[in-house]
Amino acid sequence: MTTTGAERGAGGVGGWWWWGRRRSVVLDGGLAALSALECAVEGVAFAEEAALPVPVGVLFGLVVGSVLLVRRRWPVGVVLVSIAVAPAEMGFLMGIVGLYTLAASEVPRRITAVLAGMSTVAVFVVTGVRLRQDMEPSGWYVPVVSLFMTLGLNAPPVLLGLYTGARRRLMESLRERADSLEQELSLLADRAEQRAQWARQEERTRIAREMHDVVAHRVSLMVVHAAALQAVALKDPQKAVKNAALVGDMGRQALTELREMLGVLREGAAPAAPAVVPLAAVGRAAAAAAEAAAEGDGPCLDALEALCEQSRMAGATVEFVVLGEVRAYPPEVERTAYRVVQEALTNVHKHAAGAKVVVRLAHREAEIAMQVENGPCPSDAGVADVRLPSGGNGLVGMRERVSRLGGVFVSGATEAGGFKVSAVLPVGG
Q1: Cβ distance 354 to 378 under 8 Å?
Q2: Residue 422 in 3-state DSSP?
Q3: Bridge partner residues of 367 (DSSP)
Q4: What is the dihedral of CA 123, 126, 131, 137, to 10 degrees?
Q5: Which of 106, 136, 166 is the last residue of a domain?
Q6: C-alpha dist (Å) from residue 420 to 112, 348, 375
Q7: CA 267: distance to chain centroid?
Q8: DSSP E strands: which ranges in 93-250?
Q9: Which of 61, 156, 203, 281 could, after both became Cys, cross-link 40 (CB 3.0–4.6 A)?
């Protein structure tokens, strides 16, 4: 296959060498040798007709035939040389190969058409003249035979060259398209890996948030009741028994929630054979487990009164205020509102034990707002220090929950020395 134009520039070995492959050098060298031998033989007859010494004709034929060696680099020059020596009746192989190379190259089609036409005219004239000199036939015989011989010498190499060039350009286009698709697939794979890493991180955060929301509140209340039990065990046995029963109930509820969550995780991550479970599937299972546990304990707005009562039983002073017309909301909105209040009360038990707490719930036209505000911690010695650990993720988890539903979350200290947590959730009308 002929390589010209950009291929020659890109595939050259270096310097004046324009062959991209070793077999191309061998092919062009063989064709040039055959062409030189043909032209040398034809140079003998040319020297006799031109009254020149035979060695001159042979040398001239060798030089002309050797031009075929540069057909890939200068196809136009090879065709011009073949047209120039056509009157001397030499260079037929050079003309055929030159036309093929020209048609298959990246030379503009206008130039190819002009040179092919010039070669056709030259061969036609030379053939006609030679036939008239040798045979002297009737008037119609010479043009017809000359035309057939001319077309037989020029048309096949031109048509084959055009086909080869078109096929090569098509293959190059397909190869470039394949390379482009490969690059795009590589970019898509990199982006998919980045999204997978982001999803894994999101699912880790989601699992941690669900575990924290489901368990931390009850465990915190258990610690508060245990501290109260220790304080009143000797002074008020009846209250100690009541607190012990509360601790037991809350512990059983916490264990039930954990069992339900781990059960859903186990069901969602139990393959038929040992395999690595995608973290995204575990995250979805964790979310489903949290929702299942939440539904079992009634994590909705109706359960907020019971939630406040649990804090009252732990010794906190909690006031629950409801504003607006009470109505039902989507489950995810009620669950998020419940978790925000739950986590805020947990933080009160951790950081402001004994402080007065006001929980406000406002039903509005297109949104629901909740606020948990506690006063400053009392300084009297009657408040036991329960030393509840804190991971510092409670406010972050609340903000993530509210933001996921398109709400607004605000938290911060109050002028009175307490702390306030506010959230507004849209309900879609």
Answers
A1: yes
A2: strand
A3: 426
A4: 90
A5: 136
A6: 86, 10, 9
A7: 32
A8: none
A9: 61
Number of domains in the chain: 2
CB 334 within 8 A of CB 295: no
What span, in angstroms and rounded, lies between the C-alpha atoms of 336 and 334? 5
- Residue 124's closest CA among 104, 97, 142? 142
Count Cβ neighbours within 10 Å for each residue of 388-413 and write b for 16 or more, e otherwise.
Answer: beeeeebbebbbebbeebebebebee
- Confirm whether 356 is domain-assigned: yes
Which of 390, 395, 303, 300 shows the shortest CA–CA distance to 353? Answer: 390
Contact 359, 304 (CB under 8 A): yes
Q: What is the largest CA-CA distance in the chain?
A: 145
**CA pair distance 261, 253, nearest whole angstrom:** 12
Phi/psi for 76 (5° steps) reads -65, -45
The answer to whether 324 and 365 are in contact (CB under 8 A) is no
The CATH number of residue 305's host domain is 3.30.565.10
| Pair type for strands 356-363 and 408-413 | unpaired
Chain Cα centroid distance, residue 241: 62
Least confident among 208-222, 261-275, 336-350, 384-398: 261-275
H or E element: which one contains 133? helix 109-134
As a whole number of angstroms, the distance between CA 279 and CA 265 comes to 11
Residue carrying structure tokens 């028994």:
241
Q: Which two tokens stand for residue 173?
A: 């286009």
How many Cα atoms occupy the beta-carbon half-sphere of 173 within 13 Å? 6
Mean pLDDT within 200-205: 76
Is 239 part of a structural domain of the chain? no
pLDDT-derived band at 264 (thresholds 50, 70, 90) equals low
Q: List the domain range (segments joined by +) for residue 373.
A: 298-429
Examine the fold and report which residue of 136, 152, 169 is the final residue of a domain before the chain moves on: 136
CA torsion sign for 162, 168, 173, 174 is positive
pTM, full prediction: 0.47
Q: Take residue 365 and report the two structure tokens written for it.
A: 């036209």
Residue 424 lies in a domain: yes
Whole-angstrom distance between the N-terminal and C-terminal Cα of the chain? Answer: 72
Contacts of 64 (CB under 8 A, 6+ apart): 36, 39, 43, 81, 85, 90, 91, 94
CA 347, CA 368: separation in Å to the nearest integer? 22
Q: List, for residues 300-327, the tens digit of each pLDDT value.
A: 888 899 889 888 877 788 999 999 888 8
- Residue entry with tokens 């964790």: 286
